[in-house]
Give the backbone structure.
Amino acid sequence: MTLIEFRWVDILDILVVSAAIYYLLVWLQGTRAIALIRGIAVVILLYLTGKVLGLSTINWILEKLGTIILVVIVIVFQPELRRALERLGRERILVRLGLVDTSRGSWFVRHILRAVEQLAEVKYGALIVLERNTGLSEFLESGVKLDAIITSDLIVSVFSQKSPLHDGAVIIQGDRVTAAGCLLPLSDTRLLDRRLGTRHRAAVGMSEQTDALVMVVSEKTGIISIAENGYLSRHISKEMLEEKLFDLYRVKPIMKGWFRPRKGAKKA
């Protein structure tokens, strides 16, 4: 009887595989992939049952269709596979490796914060997308190209009720407002509150397909939300948003606490 040699590399191997399976299940939770996996499990169970009971016809059909099923799986899971590969190359990982320079000025961040503050005060529904590493060209084509320097007045005017572009999203690339009135993909996740409207679902959908940071201002309540990596965080305070954006652009606030409501302004 031979003893199995157990090395520290084997422990590392087990930990990596366990972590991969865990994050895969977390990633698939609440998506349509769960239902597809159940269907695949039924097919596998049917195949194993046929092997045990000697159902030659069923086994022959499943064996012949095995290659086709694999191709169908790749096609059906294409959005999920694309999303996973994009996440592997996102800015956060590249920054840690020192491959991306995120040192930028803070002036346009202050304009974004001021615009969100004003939109929340007057309860103008807004959807603002901040590009990171994943390109957003396909979404820019659905809107009106502006290519304008970021100013709080410009952003507020776009989401004004009288503006023909207020129903779409504003996409910001670097220090410029690239386009407005853009259409974003809606999320089909079941984890979202059913009371949330199209803006919030579009924000989550955009964060699922890209690494963009998406800010949402509710038209009914003026509540500020952030969508990132497929998750929606609601009731974001102005201080939390300030910290998030300055951390995103790797700059520090010049004046601590400058992002506050003006005197006499009504709270959202």
Notes: The beta strands are 126-130, 144-149, 169-173, 176-182, 213-217, 224-228, 231-233. Residues 135 and 210 are 8 Å apart (CA to CA).
